[in-house]
Amino acid sequence: MARTKGAVGKNxxxxxxxxxxxxxxxxxxxxxxxxxxxxxxxxxxxENDVATIKAATDAWAKIAEYTEPKLSAVTIENDSSLTxxxxxxxYDAGAISNDTDNADS
Length: 105
Prior knowledge:
mainly alpha; 49% helix
């Protein structure tokens, strides 16, 4: 029988247990990645070289995988009788302005 969605498997539970034994009860790998991403970001602002900035960007991109939904590719096929309309919506809880100077293009 398959386990329910989101249930922790035996291997994951064992690994987390071992990591918490090694690094403390409050250890969590995603939080550790975030801490290191922050350190890399601070370092990139001081050093201002391409390699450090790229490392910080890659670290934040890994965190974004856990915090932002992934976008999937969409294929739109168009024949002569089909009209495609695209509506853009903001999801950042900011107020949508009708001012054309501030609108995204």
